[in-house]
Amino acid sequence: MSPNYIAKRLVMIVYTLFIVSLIVFAITQILPADAAVMMLGENATQDALAALRENMGLNAPVWQQYAIWLGHVLQGDLGTSLRTGQPVGPVMFEALGRSLLLAFLSIGLMLVLAIPLGIIAAVRRGKIADMVVSLISYAGVALPEFVTATVAVLVFADLMKWLPPTGYVPLTENFAGGIAHLVLPVCVISVILIAHVSRMVRSELVDVLHTDYIRAARLKGISRGQVLRRHALRNALLPTITIVALDVGYLLGGVIVVEEIFAIPGIGRQLIVAIQARDLPAIQAGVLIMAATYSIVNFIADILYAWLDKRIQYG
Amino acid sequence: MLEMKRRFFLAGTAAVFAAPALGLAQTAKPAKGGTLRISVDQAASVIHPLLTRVNPEYLVTELLYSNLTRLKVDMSVEPDLAESWTPNDGLTEWTFKLRKGVTFHDGSPFTAKDVVATFKAILNPATASPGRNNVGPISDIVAVDDTTVLFKLSGAYADLPVAMAYTNARIIPASIATGDLKSLSTKAVGTGPFKLVSYEPDRLIVVERNPNYYDPARPYLDRIEVQVFPDISAEGSAMIAGNVDIISTLQPTEYLRLDGNDGVEVLRTPSGQFCNINFGCDTAPFNDARVRRAIALTVDREAMVNFVTEGFGTPGNDTPLNPSYQFFKAAKQRQKNIQEAKKLLAEAGFPNGLQATLIASDRPAVRTQLAVALKEMAKEAGITINVQTMPHATYLEQVWKKGSFYVGFYNMQPTPDGIFKLLYTSDASWNETRWNNKAFDALVAEARGTIDAAKRTELYTKAQELMNEEVPSIIPSFFDVLSAKRSWVSGYQAHPRASVFRLDYASLTDKAPKRG
Amino acid sequence: MADFIKRLLRTPQGAIGVLLVLLVLVIVLFGPMLAPHDPETLAPLTRYKGPSAAYWLGTDQYGRDIFSRLLIGARATVVMAVLATIAGTLLGAFVGTTSAFLGGRADELIMRTIDAVMSIPSLLFALLVVNLLGSSTVNALIAVAIAFAPGMARITRSVALSVRKQDYVNAAVARGESSAYIILREMLPNVIAPIIVEMTIRISFAVMLFATLSFLGLGAQPPAAEWGLMVSEARRYMHLSAGILIWPSVAIAVVAVGFNLLGDGLRDALNPRT
Question: For the structural domain made of C2-270, what CATH number should be given?
Fold first, then answer.
């Protein structure tokens, strides 16, 4: 893993964010909303609106507005919310923190469940265990998150009263309570991921088990379990890193819905509120932060992949 | 005699309200202390008291600020920062006597200067306060001395004490009103029963007891947490789990769900809150009153009450007043009549029916329900309605006040004058229908300068007859205001106005869970 | 072909997938004819009814027959999802194949740009597009298609790259055929099989995405009988009658699982493993 490779990947992140900034700026430019009206409200006088437009630079050419906005973003200033009048950056980053907690717990749960399930299914291919895992994975992709979430709340909170239904409690305030509030949302998000990843692990492992290299090892008289542990798993799990990293995009999408239902004030919820209120600076900042998160996770995954790949080849 | 009666009426109101807590105190004395959690169904994006626009925002500023007067649950007015008030004979000048010894949260004393500065700020167009047209026809306001304020009006106005309770007429310090007015977007300096602790618009607003509140008995609670729930079903679940103590605004479906749950009490009060179908009366084909009346005739109002409110409402008669308002007299109820509707359409030049696109914003959901129900009802008369829903922000931007056929949704106003001047007169704040009917304007103007109740009722009844005939908007049904609380909350009632909460009267019994 | 179908039906996934998708197809084609009631007529007296002889799956919040609405809404739901997926696939396949054919710096630039677009979650991207265009079924379709295009482009490219190395493409290049000819006539047909597999699975994603857009108020418009809209509307009324929520959910699950199974079955049938 050369410094060159890392540098190249870093340049890609910058390019990605540049493209995203163009897209999001273009979209927010065309969105049917007048930033000045959004800010002053429906009762503003025409004079006040005109003055504000001039003040906010809304009368300048679009490319100039983009340049000014980008300049501010590069200096770490993501703008001021039209809705609340507060700076967008700190609000969005605080929200991102909550979403990342949700996302990491979901990925953790997914890894703990999906990888063993995938391995069992591959090893016992065609047997009952494989069928059961298949069934689970198909059930996982059968319904959209908002339905799973609704049913989960109905069953585990309203009916069984095992878990708090919704809401968010900061872990710093009340650790046990905070975790209890996260159980249902984490499970709901994980369901689709588990379905997806366990299938991927299964099919990768099935492929690896059929390679000449593994057959040769088996012929050499190495036990089945050892082949699996020593050789097959390593090769099969490696692509899983990439898949999980790509799934982060899906995860961030799922977070939007789950946060809406469970009243978690994360970045997905912030984005929904921003989109509904046509809060342009908040939309721009939110999308940019989401894209950056996705890029950085994939960057780390690629580095990890390259690093592990080497160890496998030479180790 | 008339003179006597008025004096008696006005002085009497003030005298009775001098001991407002009496009615509640006669049972058990409310316990002090505790943290109450109240849920709201949309973010409180604005806490600037002069700029708030929706109920959750009104809830927050009501905790932090005081008005000169406030509305009781029976919609009558009681003193708040003002102790008493008297008009001149022509109802064109009102003198308010203010409470002594009140301080703002920052320790500065409250005086007449603050009242003057507050109303000047509200009336200043540059402030863009939504309450600008709702605080009465004020032409000038003078601080006579530290505890006396004189309002000079541009015309006779009997409802000024009620207007003083308007949701945007919260009193702020003069130093802020004439200085950095914007600073109230992120902090709160009021004289209200609670002080702001923290403010996250989309999640949680926390307030704590103001130890220097003018009434030493109130508030009873130490702390209130206002929690935002974007999803109403989740909100109901939180109530069932006991994680929230009060749901401020409850949807009928959730009312039915919560009713009968252990430890949950559902609250209901009839109200003048309504959804209406607005016509742009200056736009074809709706510039023809016959077309408007024809569509109104297709509505089965009883069925509508069921569809849009699950029965938690009352039929409307295409005027914004109902028995929840003062000065109301019931008129003949419009009934569904498809024959008549078809006849009117034919007369208006649409013998083969009519096509139109009805726009409904997606919040609250009743707008869409109403639109879908109307679509089906109008079908019978050969009227084809396409329903188009859109996000609320888009609706506000593109349709509201501009469109010619869309669904509106309004809180009950404190007075008939309030609702007419908000929506229906030519100079209304939100003249959505562009009805611009001079005879109607004249009736409303005359009524607002009339103190005699019978005369006022007669004027408003005439105004309503005009509306019912011309149908600037269809008002098919009124909604009851619904709310829910855990049974360990006492002293809380649903308020017909929907934007008044009076949480300084709420308290927790010893059954309530101990929090933080 | 017969051999292929046999292979497809031999796997449990393939067999069940074909069965479910056929069922859906029948409903799409004949549903409106089979529906016993009008899907939009209000019936104040029959609201929130449970299943009965007249209303097989009960009635909803307006007293409308849920069974009829499902039968009629199949078109709005499934056809839209299929169309959106096809549109997204065509767009993506074109970009991916072109990129693979051009190779070198152009390929690099196109793929990096696609990676950049993919860093915006597809749901968020669809949300932004619908907000831009206004909420309607057609706009939701466009949004889903656009959201799918980058992923499909990536997949097409990797398949196309392996095709690009094949002899018949080299031969066409040697013959001096135009780029357009090579992309459209030589390369696209050979990348189609794996793309169809991916597409089949994505149809179920599209159904989810449409439903989620409806949940967020940006998909189909009431009183349409689109299943996603039915489910999201039902969330308000589910405490009064569970059937309003359950039946459209089941319908969505049938489509999602059906197309998923069919996709997996197709994949196995196309790459027979020993």
Answer: 1.10.3720.10
